[in-house]
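As a representative case, the lines below give one protein's residues and fold tokens.
***
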Amino acid sequence: MSPQLSSCLETGEPAMVSSAKAAAIPRDSRGRIPVRCRQRNPFIPVFLTGTALLAMLSLWYLGIDWGKMLSRVPDIGIVFWNLAHLDFSNMDLIFSSLVETISIAVLSLLYSLLLGIVFGMLAARNVFRLPVLSVLTQSFFTFLRAVPTPVWVLLMLVCLGMGPEAGVAGLCVHTTAFFTKSFAQSFESIPDETVESLEVTGASRLSIFCNAILPAAFSQIVAWAGMRLETNFSECAILGMVGAGGIGYVISNSLQGYDYGTAGVAILLVFAVAYTIERIFVRIKRQFNT
């Protein structure tokens, strides 16, 4: 509190300092305070113009027949109406495929978690403090992330054959690359003072990582794992359509055979499981925050 204001409070006199400052503020003819807007960023119109040009070029190159597409819009409603007529006669097949999909998602997540922690430790700059090792690890996994998951699964189908093994292996490649980057960022968010204070005591790099960095980043690891489990489950539903097994294979075959009732039940169960996974990890994250 300023001396002028404290003296005014003691003597009961009005605080003239604030009123004087308010009177010094320039106003317009209506008594309003003019507000000057900052100069607009010249990059914004350039970015918007470039985006519009790219969209126009894409439409021109693809040659989309908008008339044909609009004429087929009513068919979308018909398809969804057919999907709403649920057929529970194949529940044994649907349930076994759903369990297979969940198993693929969980196994790929667990294997990738372990590998992601190991490679994230190598990619983080504050663990071993070897810039060359960090750059090489990040560059390698950047390449792995650049290749979409379906491509990895197709490659594993060629190597391992049709079945859930290819789905687990293909998902592990991309999920491990994702975890390596995410975990490295989580490890690097630990304050350097914490690491340096342990280095002074003579603790080894591995001991510092296991006893300080990893426990401090554990809540972030859980958050990343929950998000990736939901993503892996959704991707499993798609990868089953290319021969990796699971609920996606049932959905694909049902749609191709115009068995919309069975496909509708399978799609509904996919939504239900995905929503359940999301709510479970929301609860877990709340427990960590309390």
User: Anything to note?
Assistant: The chain has one domain: 87-289. The two ends are 36 Å apart (CA to CA). Residues 87-289 form a domain with the MetI-like fold fold (CATH 1.10.3720.10).
